[in-house]
Amino acid sequence: MAFIDIKDLSFTYPEAKSPALSHVDLSIGEGEFVLVAGPSGCGKSTLLKHLKPSLAPFGTVSGSVKFMGRPVDELDLRRESREIGFVMQDPEMQIVTDKVWHELAFGLESLGTGVTEMRVRIAETANFFGIGKWMESDCASLSGGQKQLLLLAAVTAMQPRLLLLDEPTSQLDPVAASEFFDTLRRINQELGTTVIVTEHRTEGLFPIADRVVFMREGGVVFSGTPREAASLIEKDPSFTAVLPAAMTVFAKTRGQEPLSSSPLTVREGMQYLKARLGGERLSIPSPAPQKHEKKQPVIAMRGAWFRYSKNGADILKGTDLDVLPGELLAVIGGNGEGKTTALMAASGMYKPYRGKVLLNGKPISSVPEGERYGKTIGVLLQNPLLGFTRDSIREELEAVRKRFRLSEERVAEVVELMELSPILDSNPYDVSGGEVQRAAIAKLLLPSPSVLFLDEATKGMDAFFKLRFGALLRKLTALGTAIVLVSHDIEFCAEYADRVAMFALGGVIAEGSPRTVLGGNSFYTTAAARIARGSIENVLTAEDIVSLIEKKA
In what order do the strands lie in the sheet with 499-504? Predict the structure, then answer.
């Protein structure tokens, strides 16, 4: 008997033109670690929610979902709450108490757990997750990574047999994401919990997953071991975008070796590359410095200091930052280091208590808000849903069109660019995280601002759309648009940024080209750079490795 048995499951949201799930068949054994991947809107989150009845969306459903041999919708709420845990993409949507220890106790109290047993569970859970020092902390004071870990700990304290996670690392920096994945591995291996996780950030999950499931257009197109997933490249080369860097390099340089022997991890990738090069050490020539005419920054932050309350700690500490026209500036760094605060200050939405921010040489605060935002500055908030107030995405775009007196042709152009046609009549709260992100960016693009501030713009975006989004950003910068991208997506920044600024200690600690800032790092770098270390110098992307090997051949 399968632990989870899904038979011919189909589901359509109310008034939707096409099903979100279409004849899904999937069987999962107890104790398995399963990664579910695929483009935004392919049905990953919808499938996950059908495994927890209290979260199942409303709509037309057919087929069956069984949990331990019993239809999942026949589980009473108490058993479902105890045995099926769910971790959402945004911890703010799920944390319900004020203190950390209250959050750990909340689920146990709801189940009527005895006081002694509850104290033991909380204590051992805090030790397992290494969060003992936070116990008296306010949940609101935690960083994004800490909140996500707390949420996972609170669910784990209830000792679920099945743990479901919907893009849990989309807001985490590379170090925090790696630690989160390692914690998931321990939960799976040391507690025997069955784990099913949907993710666009697959690099760290392939090595620990027992099975990978790829979905497209509501159906399952592949289910197999991570190494077997390499066969997808033969069917569709675009799948290299979602596979680990080691697999991509191997698939494109393997010669006659079978795809089934593909490396998965950075270590295996390093071993393959050294063997492929016969121990020879190579180097990608550094590009010759180009002479550019000195550009005047469209935004200039000088000696900015900022804190959220009069007696609070300083978040920005004398920060200097230039935003140049026609340039994509990527801002990276750990959770809580001040990246978003710097973005909000540079865009004029926050006012530093010391220092200044200039817009085209003038104090940004002297420019009326009506002139400042829209055609001059566009700002994407970290939670894009905060910018939606209407019943459909079409109505949101139409409101922007009327406000700035734009043509309907301009709306149609942006809709096509951001691939929004299938969801135009959907409520922003009913679409996937990646889709609402695209809709929010579309609203910003409509009036053609000269400066774009994007906070975690690639959050929730699948690897396939990121390729098109990266091309769009390049097109915008070629037209002179200045773009500031705050991001935890190091791979994307390495590929598309003109300049990278790394934040820590309240300011910029390193700044320069992606190859200069990211190339020598251990954690804030790309998987390809790690794979090539000791074999090829100056590598940043998998294509760097592939191109050099092809030239050598």
Answer: 377-380, 451-455, 482-486, 328-333, 499-504, 507-512
Query: Rounded CA gap, 487 and 10, in Å?
Result: 35
- Tell me how far CA of residue 485 lies from CA of 68, 126, 176, 349, 436, in angstroms: 45, 35, 19, 16, 18
What is the CATH architecture of 4-226? 3-Layer(aba) Sandwich (3.40)
Domain boundaries, the chain: 4-226
CA–CA distance, 428 with 393 (Å, rounded to integer): 6
Q: Which residue has the tokens 């050598």?
A: 552
Residue 78: exposed, middle, or buried by beta-carbon count in 10 A (0-12, 13-18, 19+)? exposed
The whole-angstrom separation of Cα 403 and Cα 396 is: 11
Q: In Å, how far from its chain's centre is CA 84?
A: 24
- Residues composing the chain: 553
Does this model's pTM top 0.90? no
271 φ/ψ angles, rounded to the nearest 5 degrees: -65, -40
Asked whether 376 and 449 are in contact (CB, 8 A), the reply is yes
177, 488 Cβ separation under 8 angstroms: yes
**Residue 457: which of 43, 143, 147, 170 has the closest Cα?**
170
Sheet holding 33-37, edge to edge: 84-87, 162-166, 194-198, 33-37, 211-216, 219-224
Q: Select from 381, 376, 371, 374 the least CA-distant residue to 482.
A: 376
Task: Report the alpha-carbon distance of residue 37 to residue 167 in Å, rounded.
Answer: 10
Supply 312's token pair.
């609070």
CB 539 within 8 Å of CB 528: yes
CB atoms within 10 A of CB 466: 21
Bridging pattern class, strands 354-359 and 362-363: antiparallel
Task: Tell me if 65 sits within 8 A of 220, measured CB to CB.
Answer: no
Backbone angles phi, psi at 18, to 5 degrees: -140, 155
Give strand pairing partners of 521: none
- Dihedral (C-alpha) 103, 105, 111, 117: value to the nearest 10 degrees? 160
Task: Please give the average pLDDT of every successive group of 10 residues along the chain, which has 553 residues.
Answer: 92 89 96 92 92 93 94 92 90 87 92 92 91 88 82 93 92 85 94 94 92 93 91 80 89 85 93 91 72 78 93 92 95 89 94 95 89 90 85 94 93 91 89 84 92 89 85 90 93 94 93 91 92 92 90 74
Are the beta carbons of 194 and 162 closer than 8 angstroms? yes
Could you give phi then psi for residue 320, rounded to 5 degrees? -115, 135
